[in-house]
Write a structure and sequence with these properties.
Helix content: over 70%
Radius of gyration: 21 Å
Oligomer: single chain
Number of helices: 15
Largest sheet: none
Length: 446
């Protein structure tokens, strides 16, 4: 990369803001959608709770791997930087391209559609209401983050607080106020083969904690704090998910949870009527907006790293030092997300299209990051590592196996979105024939 530049990321926020970003990304709209799917494929209430606990444990394994990489190689490029050191900047280019064109932009678009769907129940704007609200959300979060890192972090902290209050409302209503569901209304035993499908949805709901890697260059004392931030965030998220599922199972039962298309709205409707359902609709919209804001914040930083490495995309690598933001990267990312929202407006299900478009590339590069830990341990054995993953090599091996399984599952879930995502990755591979990385040493290399 280029040599030292005064206009570059530097520590600007602490552990509180980092935890707010991670929790905000992970605890999105998924927790309001997934419990019914999990319940429908589980044999008992205990199996549901075990699946969510196991999902938290598997995510914690991945977080331990990321904690070692982020503490040893703190960098605004996050995973892009790890892959560059392990497999070379050409492979990292393919990741950076896929993240900019597929992974982050697709995630922002699908979260914006969730926001649009729920806000449209309160403020309908015609046949394309969800897409209009989704586009407005993309513009708003891009503008907030472009205005400066302080604005983005402050917005994220408050959105996360509101998001957690919404979840707390579900938990309190289900555990303290809702009448206990009749024990007789239970599902027949689910097939034994359903555990894998249950874990797929559970792990997707836990997805997003890896974005902490992109905070390592801007977190005060990152080598010492990053492991605690990751582990603490996931412990909080796992506790919240277990409490939400306990509340829904107590109030609706296994059969009621499985048969609900909006478990939180049904639960609050049971306790407080239509007003409760309206309140939770707003909470879901806030949750989606919170995740979209945090995703935009971290996604632009990997695009910045890509621009620093490749002259062809140098405009992405310009940092607005006073505001502490990669301004051009945010604008390009927002424009790409708006394009996806526009395409989704004419699809039968914009949310599903965005999921299909995003998932295969996400899990492929997740697996590559897990493998990079093995490569960097062997290649740079004497490098100072403030945090070392425990039980090496077993822990990262488990991480790689679970990522491989989810990659297979996402490829099996094919559709036009997955084909489009594959075409974009292929376009990035074709570009590698013509683009070359800078010949200067990598920024921040040891």
């Amino acid at each position: 990369m280029q040599g030292p530049d005064p206009a570059s990321p530097r520590p600007r926020f602490g552990s509180r803001e980092a935890v707010a970003l991670i929790v905000g990304i992970v605890v999105g709209a998924g927790i309001y959608r997934t419990p019914s799917i999990v319940a429908a494929h589980a044999s008992s209430e205990a199996a549901v709770l075990l699946a969510w606990l196991l999902g938290g444990a598997i995510s914690m394994v991945g977080a331990l791997c990321y904690a070692e990489l982020a503490s040893a190689f703190p960098h605004a490029g996050g995973e892009y930087h790890f892959l560059s050191r392990a497999f070379g900047r050409r492979f990292a280019f393919l990741y950076g391209w896929s993240r900019l064109a597929i992974i982050q932009t697709g995630s922002i678009a699908l979260l914006a559609f969730v926001y649009g769907d729920y806000v449209s129940q309160v403020v309908p704007l015609g046949p394309h209401s969800a897409a209009i609200h989704a586009a407005a959300a993309v513009v708003a979060i891009t503008a907030v983050n472009w205005a400066g890192v302080a604005h983005g972090c402050r917005t994220q902290v408050w959105l996360t607080v509101i998001e957690l209050l919404g979840l707390a409302l579900v938990v309190i209503a289900g555990l303290l106020f809702a009448p206990e569901a009749a024990a007789a209304a239970e599902l027949p035993p689910a097939p034994e083969t359903s555990l894998g499908l249950v874990l797929v949805f559970v792990l997707l709901t836990y997805g997003g904690w890896n974005e902490a890697a992109y905070l390592s260059a801007e977190l005060h004392d990152a080598p010492r704090r990053i492991a605690g931030v990751l582990i603490g965030s996931l412990a909080l998220i796992t506790t919240l998910y277990l409490l939400v599922n306990l509340a829904t199972l107590r109030a609706l039962g296994l059969a009621g949870t499985a048969g609900s298309e909006a478990v939180a709205a049904d639960l609050l409707g049971l306790v407080w009527g239509p007003a409760g359902a309206a309140i939770i609709s707003v909470a879901v919209a806030v949750a989606a907006l919170t995740s979209a804001n945090a995703t935009a914040f971290t996604g632009a930083r990997s695009a910045y790293a890509l621009g620093r490495d490749f002259p062809f995309l140098a405009f992405l690598g310009r940092w607005r030092d006073r505001e502490g933001t990669p301004g051009n990267a945010l604008l390009i990312q927002g424009g790409a997300a708006l394009l996806l929202v526009g395409l989704g407006a004419f699809a039968r299900d914009g949310f599903r299209l965005a999921v299909e478009y995003t998932a295969p590339a996400f899990w492929f590069f997740f697996l590559a990051v897990g493998l990079s830990l093995f490569v960097l341990r062997r290649r740079e054995p004497d490098l100072k590592r403030p945090f070392r993953v425990p039980l090496y090599p077993l822990t990262p091996a488990i991480f790689c196996v679970t990522s491989s399984y989810l990659l297979f599952s996402s490829l099996a879930y094919t559709g036009i979105g997955a084909l489009a995502g594959g075409a974009v990755v292929a376009a990035g591979a074709f570009m590698l024939l013509f683009v070359k990385p800078r010949s200067l040493p990598m920024e921040g290399a040891s």
